[in-house]
Amino acid sequence: MMKKYPIVLLLSVMLILAVTGCKGENDGELSNEIDKTVQVKDIPKEDYEKPLTREWIKETYKYSDEKLDDYYVDEMIGSGEWSVGRVEEEAGNPTEFHRLLTSNKIMYMGAHKDEIEAEKAEKERLYSRAYLMEGTVFQDEIPDPKELKWLFCQRFFYVNRGGDDNSPDGYFGFMIDFENHKYYLRTLYHENEFPHDYRTGEETDLSDEQMAQIYEWFDAAGAESWDKTQDHNRELWHMGLEYKDGTVVTYALTEDDGKSPLSVLKDNLWNLVNAREK
Question: Which of 73, 102, 218, 243 has the fewest CB atoms within 10 Å distance of its CB?
Fold first, then answer.
């Protein structure tokens, strides 16, 4: 019986070696597979504690302030849920960061729908002057130019005329705030931008001398001679006027008619607005 022990011992050693060898081989295969498929970004610990800021986002991902406003980034930052490190971990490239902002915007808009609609309505009330393009023309006596409150002059243009709806490719125009002696210039915009928020235009103060010149131009234009029957959809230039009593009128001007009093007025106002460009 004693002679069988060496055989049993030998079998035990072989079995242990076989199991140990297989385990080591499998561990190597698993390790190689992880190395090839999983890459964990090494983010410094201090980044997890670094607050997320507009400046960091603009520098890192090249977003403008206007674009960040559209994605409600201030609300995202103010939530306290995001740090530089967390953004780097979840959005390591511009495409992923865009997806992150889009997701944040959707969630915020869903949770604050009524608030957003109220803010939009208030912004429209305060800063939109689109209604100046929707007035009629005077059939009676024109009010005194010194009763003017706002003027909005806009021209649309075509790059490729035609298309399915024959809609313009863009606009440029200017507004004058008579009560605060300011004008706003926007040389290129799409339909809803400048008219619905005059602050998107470049703001410049008007001097007392410039204001006096504007009133002289209005007097010289002889408003009583302005065309009272116009096709607003046909002409390229439109001028909207709002008076202090709430009256709003809109006039249409031909593209190259520099002889009519209204066109002369428009050209003078345009040159005044663009004088600083020279």
Answer: 102
Give Cα 23 distance to the centre of its chain: 59
Same domain, 66 and 140: no
* Nearest of 90, 103, 12, 101 to residue 62 by alpha carbon: 101
Q: Residue 37, Cβ neighbours under 10 Å: how many? A: 7
How many other C-beta atoms are found inside a 10 Å radius of the C-beta of residue 118? 11
Angle made by CA atoms 197, 201, 205, in degrees to the nearest 5: 115
50 neighbors 83 (Cβ within 8 angstroms): yes
Strands in 182-189's sheet, in edge-to-edge order, are 202-205, 182-189, 170-177, 148-157, 237-243, 248-253
**Tens-place pLDDT, residues 78-129:** 988 898 888 988 887 889 999 999 999 998 888 888 888 888 888 888 899 9
Among the candidates 111, 145, 167, a domain finishes at: 111
What's the domain range around 164?
Answer: 130-277
Q: Which of 214, 197, 195 is nearest to 155 (CA)?
A: 195
Q: Which amino acid is at 160?
A: N
- Could you tell me the pTM of the whole model? 0.61
Q: Strands 170-177, 182-189: parallel, antiparallel or unpaired by DSSP?
A: antiparallel
Q: pLDDT per residue over 208-249, tens digit each?
A: 999 999 999 999 888 766 765 555 555 578 889 999 988 898
One domain for residues 88 and 190: no
Residue found by looking up tokens 């967390």 in the block: 86
Q: CA-to-CA distance for 227 and 250, rounded, in angstroms?
A: 11
Sequence-separated (6 or more) residues with CB below 8 Å from residue 232: 238, 250, 252
Identity of residue 94: P
Q: Are the beta carbons of 129 and 150 closer than 8 angstroms? A: yes
257 falls within a domain = yes
Q: Does one domain contain both 184 and 78? A: no
Determine the Cα–Cα distance for residues 250 and 171; give it in Å rounded to an integer. Answer: 17
